[in-house]
Design brief:
Helices cover 43% and strands 9% of the residues. It is mainly α and 285 residues long.
């Protein structure tokens, strides 16, 4: 939901830093020998990410410990992340921190509802351990988004969630999140997805999948429920003497702020309220 710039560190550097934290010289040599050409691995990942075909990458079983890359088994590759990339005191920890802070504190997967607390493996390391420490596979995110996704990943293109580093600008600059007002006391906003008509069917399916995968309907509705009382109070007080049309214009202006992305829950909330005759006609006495 929020486009991120590519990490400043490449796969080769991340590997070297992680490997340098391994105590055994023999183990360090084995890892280095297995990754004789990290650029080729990184280039393949980037090409597939841009084409939204990462779902077709080879998967490994979650049951046993197969060979994955050269002499390295699944467990060897996941250890690079869990034991030599994340822990405090390891040389690669600074890279972990740099990637995490690059999002500016706001989770790109839920549009900034959550605050960044960890890194999410876009391709889960349980099934795709080859990319365990690849910076472009590590997405800064909140704990909710990280835990909700777990090890699930699409098996067809249309079910792939959005990739903040590689996906086309259309996903971030064109509106596909909408909402409706439920006329209750207090009012409720219900969020849903309507992709632009001219999008490819796979792209339409992908934003729907992203919306469901990260539970955005509930997250956005909860945020709106907490924010709406302020707008209702404004209607009761400073906007009490204004007509429904004037109140609608006021809300529309708040919904067109350039400081919020087009699919931000709050921006969508104001544009939805502005277009709803029932809400704009209420005085909330």
């Amino acid at each position: 939901m929020k486009k991120l710039s590519l990490p400043k560190v490449n796969f080769s550097t991340a590997l070297a830093e992680a490997i340098s934290g391994i105590g055994s010289e023999a183990a360090r040599l084995a890892y280095t020998a297995a990754f004789a050409d990290p650029l080729a691995v990184e280039t393949n990942y980037a090409d597939c990410a841009k084409a939204a075909t990462l779902y077709a990458q080879p998967r490994v079983t979650t049951i046993d410990d197969p060979l994955v890359h050269g002499t390295l088994r699944k467990s060897d590759l996941t250890k690079l992340y869990t034991q030599y990339f994340v822990p405090e005191g390891k040389p690669a920890r600074r890279l972990y921190q740099d990637i995490k802070v690059a999002a500016g504190g706001k989770c790109p997967l839920c549009g900034g509802v959550g605050h960044v607390r960890t890194l999410d493996h876009y391709l889960p390391k349980a099934n795709f351990p080859l990319y365990a420490v690849m910076p472009t596979n590590l997405v800064p995110c909140c704990r909710d988004c990280n835990s909700e996704k777990l090890n699930a990943f699409a098996v067809v293109k249309g079910n792939q969630t959005l990739h903040p580093y590689f996906d086309h600008e259309r996903f971030f600059n064109e509106k596909w999140i909408h909402a409706r007002v439920i006329p209750t006391t207090p009012p409720v906003l219900e969020y849903f997805v309507v992709p632009p008509d001219d999008w490819h069917e796979d792209d339409k399916s992908r934003v729907r999948s992203h919306f469901v995968e990260y539970g955005l309907a509930e997250k956005f509705s909860v945020e709106a429920a907490a924010d709406l009382p302020e707008t209702i109070q404004t209607r009761r007080t400073t906007m009490s003497a204004h007509s429904a049309q004037e109140f609608s214009r006021y809300l529309a202006e708040k919904g067109q702020t350039a400081t919020l992305p087009v699919n931000n829950w709050r921006r969508v909330m104001f544009s939805t309220l502005a277009a709803d005759p029932w809400f704009c006609s209420q005085t909330f006495d």
